[in-house]
Write a structure and sequence with these properties.
The protein is α/β, with parallel strands linked by helices and 790 residues long. It contains 26 helices and 14 strands. The strands form three sheets. An eight-stranded mixed β-sheet has the order 7-6-5-8-9-11-10-13, with helices on both faces. A four-stranded antiparallel β-sheet has the order 1-2-3-4. A two-stranded parallel ribbon has the order 12-14. The protein starts with a helix and ends with a helix.
Length: 790
């Protein structure tokens, strides 16, 4: 056995290694999502490739490397290799993206190509990551005491991962970009490697001591248990993260907090399990009871997430400082998930102690347990995200997890010859705990962090859990219907929302001369898509929507408002994230309109980057128009500036149209063309007067717009007017996704009136944009000035 002082130093090294690994995971996933998409299928592929590589590494290294090689030197070389791949991937991701989009397809072939792209990038470094713990295992003895140190190393690695999650989400990517984050991770790898090389020069190799024969014997039951433990842990993480993101707000900060708490619990549990493993005479029995207690812990979390936390008397909008809100979110997350994560963490060192055998290679011991646990984690994460939640719902999915954990514990108890009465009592307890799990509240899906404030205010007439999101439709006493996604109202039949959605659709088709082919990004309630569909000049309309439930179910509840757009024969729905669709299609459009989720929702910022707008430009026919929805509510000035500034960088001739509510700012429509925009009001008015345009006239009349002038009098200014206001705008790019970090600090703010009032000080009159008769132009100028309060 090595010196305890040196072993303690190794814990610190593993912490640094874990921190770097989490930085890489966040960076690589962000970069690859830009290539293969951010749908549930893509995320399943990414998770499978990442953890699959770690599984391969844990099994491969003990068989590939000679026992006489110094474990610390092997560990150091592995860290250097991980750092080298980190730099390499940062450079070659654009090349991978180009190759992928050249070959990408749909259906099973498309999934296979996504898998190949993810595997090509992630397998080499993750194989090395998975090999680090088995590599160092040969430096300790295959005794209960030595196995305990492996548990401490694992706990240190997870502690570093917690730090990496918080460091990346709250600082490196918020302030810098993926390049700087990668360099920090590489520096950590290099530091760890140099220290490991230094230690290897002054320390001997590990020795092997006999192990008590009591723990030897058949190990299949232990591998089964630790595999199911990994499966339930990752399945629970997927399921609980979906629910917590509804409750806390689906920002990048929320996901970092949830991941940090989950990993923190694993680290605490691993350390506690390591302490127990040093003294237990029957570690298999302890591992078995740990799985039974996990059933109670999962039932606890299910109860807290569905019956307790959503109804705490918390009004998020009271506190305007997001950092105070993060503290509350951290507390609520820990309160809900720590019990289960601690027990999952304890299972790993207990499993190591349970399979330790006389004269066994410690590297193979650790590699086998780690591989079984990781293989289970792959099944759990991919299965929960793509199958369990969608097919069964979160309630049934959690019941399946409880039963699986209970069965694994019962099998091991039976193998340990526990009294039959104890087995029956444990089985009954598991069954009762599974039955205690309640359905996901529709009110939580609809109103998320404001659920307690909306109790009794609306009826939830539909709630569904889809591949990518949980969605709902509610109806108030006054007949207003709301479409909910990400725990908030995304669209509604409220007058101000109808006005915005009709504006967005009609501006998209009335400005271009011949909008025969139109792409709508984001279906939602379908009102914008419906406004596009009724334009007689539109021959083909494509809707790109990431969540299948939205066009299949949600939009049908709004058929009276969206002209039953989904059943329109000239409409085609593509289930894909819009960025991936545009990257992989050769089709071009005369107009593209984008109404994605709020920019503070993690991943939505990918549809607001400079590179995405350039991609949109490349898919426009000559004279084509692009429109973009920008919200002022639940946002802050920095985020709004970033959205507008980034759009105007791509479309320097762009302009802003404002949808006001009682004269105050509410939301905006940005409009851009590659060419300088010229809008002939007389021509548009003549078009609207034709009989076939009667549906558009009626649509505009319903939102208080009776002429073309009324529609275009919402003009708030052009790009040149806002140049002074946008001087300090932070441009949202693929390398930083700056917008999601800016917007994530403003989701509880309601400052739309203040933001728009500040914008109006820069608003100008239209210059050389509108043409028409003098009377029409005079009427337009009067109405614009009146809207601006001038």
């Amino acid at each position: 056995m090595q010196s305890p002082r040196v072993l303690t130093a190794l814990i610190a090294l593993f912490a640094g290694s874990g921190c770097a690994a989490l930085i890489y995971e966040v960076v690589w996933f962000q970069l690859l999502e830009l290539v293969i998409g951010s749908s549930a299928v893509s995320m399943g592929v990414l998770l499978g490739a990442f953890m699959g590589g770690m599984c391969i590494g844990s099994l491969w290294l003990p068989r590939a490397l000679k026992p006489e090689w110094h474990p610390l030197r092997i560990y150091a070389w592995l860290e250097l290799g991980i750092g080298a791949f980190g730099l390499f991937l940062l450079l070659v991701m654009p090349l991978v993206g180009g190759l992928y989009t050249a070959w990408a397809g749909t259906g099973v072939i498309g999934i296979l190509i996504r898998g190949l792209a993810a595997a090509a990038c992630l397998l080499p470094p993750t194989v090395l990551m998975g090999a680090t713990l088995p590599a160092i295992a040969r430096w300790v003895d295959a005794t209960p005491r030595g196995v305990a140190w492996l548990g401490f190393f694992y706990g240190g690695n997870i502690a570093g991962a917690v730090a990496g999650s918080l460091l990346t989400g709250f600082y490196l990517l918020r302030v810098y970009d993926v390049g700087i984050a990668t360099y920090v991770a590489v520096a950590m790898n290099l530091t760890v490697a140099l220290v490991a090389f230094a230690l290897s020069a002054v320390t001997p190799q590990g020795t092997s001591e006999p192990v008590p024969t009591e723990v030897a014997g058949s190990r299949w039951a232990v591998y089964l248990v630790i595999g199911l433990s990994g499966m339930t842990a990752l399945a629970a993480q997927v399921t609980w993260t979906r629910t917590l993101s509804l409750m806390l707000g689906a920002t990048v900060y929320t996901f970092s907090l949830i991941l940090a708490v989950f990993l923190g619990g694993l680290g605490i549990g691993s350390s506690l399990g390591a302490v127990l493993a040093r003294t237990l005479d029957r570690p298999r029995l302890a591992l078995a009871w740990c799985q039974i207690m996990l059933c109670a812990a999962m039932a606890w979390t299910a109860y807290i997430l569905t019956e307790s936390l959503p109804f705490w008397p918390v009004n998020p909008s009271i506190e305007t400082d997001a950092w105070f809100q993060f503290q509350l979110d951290l507390t609520r997350t820990a309160y809900a998930v720590l019990p289960g994560t601690i027990l999952w963490g304890a299972s790993f060192p207990l499993a190591l102690a349970a399979v330790a055998a006389r004269d066994q290679d410690p590297a193979r011991l650790v590699g086998g347990v780690y591989a079984a646990n990781t293989l289970g984690a792959i099944v759990g994460s991919v299965g929960a995200s793509l199958l369990l939640v969608v097919w069964l719902g979160s309630q049934r999915a959690q019941q399946v997890m409880i039963v699986a954990s209970g069965l694994s514990g019962l099998v091991l108890l039976w193998r340990e010859r526990v009294h039959a009465m104890a087995l029956w009592i444990a089985a009954a307890l598991v069954w009762l705990l599974a039955l205690s799990v309640n359905p996901l509240p529709g009110l939580l899906v609809a109103y998320g962090r404001y659920a307690v404030l909306e109790m009794g205010e609306a009826d939830i007439i539909y709630m569904g859990e889809g591949w990518n999101a949980s969605v709902a439709v509610s109806e108030r006493d006054n007949g207003v219907r709301n479409y909910h996604n990400a725990g908030k109202v995304q669209a509604s039949s409220e007058p101000q929302d109808m006005r915005l959605q009709r504006m967005l659709g009609h501006l998209t088709t009335l400005v271009p001369d011949n909008p025969s082919s139109v792409l709508v990004i984001g279906c939602g309630a379908g009102v914008t898509a419906g406004a596009v569909s009724i334009d007689p000049a539109v021959e083909h309309e494509t809707i790109a929507e990431i969540e299948p439930l939205v066009p299949q179910v949600v939009s049908t509840y709004f058929a009276d408002y969206n002209f039953d757009v989904i059943r329109n024969p000239k409409v085609t729905v593509r289930i894909d994230d819009a960025r991936h669709f545009l990257q992989t299609t050769n089709e071009k459009f005369d107009a593209i309109t984008s109404d994605p989720l709020d920019p503070w929702v993690k991943g939505a910022a990918m549809l607001y980057t400079r590179e995405f707008f350039e991609l949109v430009k490349a898919r426009l026919n000559p004279g084509g128009v692009v429109t973009l929805f920008v919200q002022l509510y639940e946002s802050n000035t920095e985020a709004v500036k970033s959205e507008i500034g980034t759009f105007f960088e791509a479309f320097p001739n762009g302009m802003i149209f404002a949808n006001t509510y009682y004269g105050e700012g509410y939301d905006l429509v940005l409009l851009g063309q590659v060419e300088p925009t010229r809008i002939n009001l007389d021509k548009i008015e003549a078009r609207l007067a034709r009989p076939e345009y009667a549906p558009i006239r009626q649509s505009l009349n319903e939102v208080g717009m009776f002429t073309a002038v009324d529609l275009f009098a919402t003009f708030a200014g052009q790009a040149s007017d806002f140049e002074p206001w946008l001087e300090e705008a932070q441009i949202n790019r693929d390398r930083n996704l700056r917008l999601q970090y800016l917007a994530g600090r403003g989701l509880n703010l309601y400052q739309a009136d203040l933001i728009y009032a500040e914008m109006l000080t820069f608003a100008g009159a239209p210059q050389e944009i509108f043409t028409g008769s003098p009377e029409v132009l005079e009427d337009l100028t009067f109405k614009i000035r009146d809207a601006h309060g001038r």
